[in-house]
Amino acid sequence: MPESHRRLPTAASDDALIERSRTGDAAAFARLVERHRVRVLAVARSIAPHAAEDVTQQTFLSAWLALGRYDATRGSVATWLCGIARNRSIDALRAEGRRPLLARIEDAAAHLVCQEETPFDVVERRTAAAGVRRALLTLGPEQRTALTLAYYGGLSQQEIQVRTEVPLGTVKGRTRLGLRAMRVQLGVAA
């Protein structure tokens, strides 16, 4: 019997399935899809609910085409697939001319779906978010507006320029100075 048609052990690890898939074993890849479809679909729904099914299919197609680039030392197969789903979801939003909210992506996709979050993780994330909000309130209104539009509104610097009706260089300066002030407030190294 050809190697690609052999039955896979029921408890095959994700890494073993990746290795088998790299040799063209479609059954091994189908097992990965079956194992991670719900998680990938949840990421897609949390970011681009209107395109979640398409994003899920695109995610697994991208994964199949990129099997050679998967590196187990950089994270698990689940994390890799969730990252692809996140990127495909953002692509879907951008294709429609919409940009995602940074907070929504970070909270929904990265923390709630791809990682098993403990109550301590939730408290830590919420505490960090509250610290960011407090630090944002210490900024002047121009810097606060630039950062809020960029990071919570998902706008590019050019879009902020149009919205605020100030020169692009001013928007860039406000963003840079605001980020610098936020780093100081939060005690984060530059």
From TrEMBL:
It comes from the Bacteria. Keywords: DNA-binding, Sigma factor, Transcription, Transcription regulation. SUPFAM superfamilies: Sigma2 domain of RNA polymerase sigma factors, Sigma3 and sigma4 domains of RNA polymerase sigma factors. Residues 32-99 form the RNA polymerase sigma-70 region domain. Pfam families: Sigma70_r2, Sigma70_r4_2. InterPro entries: RNA_pol_sigma-70-like (IPR039425), RNA_pol_sigma-70_dom (IPR014284), RNA_pol_sigma70_ECF_CS (IPR000838), RNA_pol_sigma70_r2 (IPR007627), RNA_pol_sigma70_r4_t2 (IPR013249), RNA_pol_sigma_r2 (IPR013325), RNA_pol_sigma_r3/r4-like (IPR013324), WH-like_DNA-bd_sf (IPR036388). The keyword Protein biosynthesis does not apply. Residues 132-182 form the RNA polymerase sigma factor 70 region 4 type domain. The keyword Metal-binding does not apply. Belongs to the sigma-70 factor family. ECF subfamily. This is RNA polymerase sigma factor. It comes from Paraconexibacter antarcticus.
